[in-house]
Design a protein that fits this description.
Number of helices: 3
Largest sheet: none
Structural class: mainly alpha
Distance between the termini: 30 Å
Order of helices and strands: HHH
Number of strands: 0
């Protein structure tokens, strides 16, 4: 018997590569922010990159948490509850973060925005590359009918 198919290795790989890309983009955003607007720009770039990385990562983390309940009789309900709850939490956190951060005097909005955008796009590219290279079979343990008589229908 083959082991059960799991998306966990794929999600872990996506989280790992997203962290690497985020680290690089964080350094770039801080450097560009410092060049454009000094210390406030550097801080705005760093926060923008962090915000841009945290929210996509929450989706993968919520799926990993939901996958831990596989085999439970109510697995599907728990899984969708965890993923939907994570999505709602992200939605509220995005609104609160934007309302709070953009009211602060020292936040340089264009630097914050472009750092956030670059990190979000970087995360999407990582997800696309990881998913396009995954090796997850679409069919498992399928038994095809065996025909011994070529004249049988």
């Amino acid at each position: 018997m083959t082991p059960p198919i799991s998306s966990t290795p794929i999600l872990r790989r996506a989280l790992l590569w997203s962290a690497v890309v985020t680290g690089v983009l964080l350094i770039v955003a801080v450097a560009i922010g410092a060049l454009v607007a000094g210390g406030d720009g550097a801080l705005s770039g760093g926060i923008g990159a962090a915000v841009g990385a945290i929210f996509p990562a929450l989706t993968a983390v919520s799926i990993l948490i939901g996958n831990r309940f596989y085999g439970h009789p109510a697995w599907l309900q728990i899984f969708f509850g965890v993923v939907l709850g994570g999505w709602l939490l992200k939605f509220v956190l995005v609104i609160v973060a934007f309302l709070l951060l953009l009211r602060l005097e020292w936040v340089v909005a264009p630097v914050f925005f472009f750092a956030l955008l670059a990190t979000a796009v970087g995360s999407l590219v990582v997800d696309l590359v990881v998913i396009s290279r995954m090796r997850l079979p679409a069919v498992s343990e399928t038994v095809l009918p065996q025909h011994t008589d070529p004249d049988a229908v």
